[in-house]
Design brief:
Blueprint: E1 12-15, E2 24-30, H1 34-42, E3 54-60, E4 66-75, E5 86-92, H2 95-107, E6 111-112, H3 117-124, H4 130-141, H5 145-155, H6 158-182, H7 190-211, H8 214-222, E7 224-229, H9 236-244, E8 262-268, E9 271-277, H10 287-301, E10 305-311, E11 328-334, E12 350-351, H11 360-371, H12 387-407, H13 414-430, H14 438-445
Parallel strand pairs: 1-6, 7-9, 7-10, 10-11, 11-12
Antiparallel strand pairs: 1-2, 2-5, 3-4, 4-5, 8-9
């Protein structure tokens, strides 16, 4: 990959608002020459301004013609988002005028910013740790109340503080252990060994508690893959339409109407559900329907939650549609407005009617309870690790367990335990960015918006 830009040598500029028409647009400049660039574009209006206050100004081209007018704000040094001199210009939201203003900033000495480069500079200048930087993107992309809460918690540094505190405790433990190694002639107090093992176990408890949030983090960022399946004509597409609140899938009493899978996202109790409507499972009547059913099977295998829907007015099938699996499954009985067949008596299921809408509140509650994603399940702080955090925590956990095994018997070589603790220390340090992470930064910030 290309070398990271030196934040003390380049001045960057970018449009920070989404492309398209709007009432206003926001452009950013950051770097050692940010104020000089703004002065060149405004005829010297930037440098006299008081920091962190907005003032009216005009952006002019090389001939003195006005390109746009709006509000200019100066942020100096460490008081800015990036930790370096920065300018924000809020102008009119047209596509062309915004591009013209950006072009003028580039003519005056700035260079075009890359994706996430402003937040990357905030990290490099110590304004954010790496988890907070990732929280910025999570906050932007949050689709539900719970995902917004988790992103805000991460942006406020909750995850970074927890991992840093665990790392600091482990560092102290490692220092104590290495003092043991450096002075082997001293008698080892058995109580000291007990204390060291206790500290390592305490760090391991923190690691385990964070790893337990991995599924929540994945769900909040990617959604719960929820597959609606069942026999033909039981109301799968009607259920999808009801949950979405609009007619997304074709509803017909002709068996085999749905030939392919349909996927949409809905917000349910703060949980993003990726609803997948599938073809009815039966003996296929033609090759196209057979392919649709095969796709249904593949969707079921990849599901987080299965909604098995059946017609309550018809006899209960004697054979299961699909074999039992470990995937969470809810039985849904549709068409209760037509009456319930006696064979369904005593069957635990959510009973509803896609025609009348009765029972959908019960279905929403049942989905929430099945996933254990009520707000009460989050506790006081919403911490939801991502895949990168999970990989680092798994490495730390493996190293901590190896160190504990060695420390349980004081006759073992304590230098080996020290090596394991150093590995755990490095793994924990990767999460907030306390170690050399240049390659990692390129991956993380490439997913950001330009201008953020």
């Amino acid at each position: 990959m290309n070398a990271l830009p030196d934040p003390h040598r380049t001045t960057i500029a970018a449009i920070a608002t989404p492309p398209g028409m709007g009432a206003v647009s926001l452009l950013r400049i950051s770097g050692p020459n940010a104020i000089a660039v703004a002065d060149a574009a405004t005829g010297g209006q930037a440098s006299p301004l008081s920091p962190r206050t907005s003032h009216y100004c005009r952006i002019k081209d090389t001939n003195g013609q006005i390109l746009d007018d709006g509000l200019l704000t100066v942020f100096r040094g460490n008081s800015s988002y990036t930790g370096e001199d920065s300018i924000e210009f809020t102008g009119h939201g047209g596509v062309l005028v915004t591009r013209e203003v950006l072009g003028r900033f580039l003519e005056c000495g700035a260079i075009a910013a890359g994706p996430g480069e402003f937040t990357q500079r905030a990290f490099l200048n110590g304004k954010l740790d790496l988890t907070q930087a990732e929280g910025v993107m999570d906050l932007i992309s949050a689709q539900t109340r719970l995902s917004l809460r988790a992103a805000r918690s991460q942006l406020e540094g909750t995850l970074g503080r927890r991992t840093t505190e665990a790392r600091d405790q482990l560092l102290e433990t490692l220092a104590h252990l290495e003092a043991w190694i450096d002075f082997p002639e001293e008698d080892i107090d058995p109580q000291t060994g007990v204390l060291l093992r206790g500290r390592v176990r305490s760090v391991l408890d923190v690691v385990d508690s964070l790893l337990a949030t991995a599924d929540q983090g994945r769900v909040l960022r990617e959604g719960v893959r929820t597959v609606i399946f069942g026999e033909p004509n039981v109301g799968k597409s009607s259920l999808l339409n009801r949950l979405l609140g609009f007619e997304r899938a074709i509803v017909s009493d002709i068996a085999g109407t749905t030939r392919d899978t349909i996927e949409e996202v809905v917000n349910l109790h703060g949980i993003p559900l990726r609803l997948v409507d599938t073809a009815g499972v039966r003996v296929a009547s033609d090759r196209i329907e057979a392919e649709g059913i095969q796709r249904t099977v593949r969707q079921i295998e990849a599901a987080d939650l299965l909604l098995e829907i059946a017609d309550a007015s018809q006899p209960r099938p004697t054979d299961a549609i699909l074999p039992a699996s470990d995937i969470k499954r809810l039985q849904v009985l549709n068409k209760t407005d037509l009456g319930e067949h006696p064979s369904w008596a005593g069957v635990e299921a959510v009973r509803l009617s896609c025609t009348s809408g009765e029972g959908f509140d019960l279905l929403s509650d049942a989905i929430r309870d099945a996933l254990h994603f009520s707000e009460a399940d989050w506790g006081e702080h919403a911490v939801a690790i991502n895949a990168r955090h999970q990989a680092s925590l798994q490495l730390a956990r493996t190293a901590l367990l190896a160190a504990l095994e060695l420390l349980d018997d004081l006759s073992n070589d304590t230098e080996l335990a020290a090596i394991d603790l150093r590995e755990a220390l490095d793994a924990l340090g990767e999460i907030p960015g306390r170690v050399d992470t240049e390659d990692l930064l390129g991956v993380i910030f490439s997913s950001f918006c330009i201008g953020k």
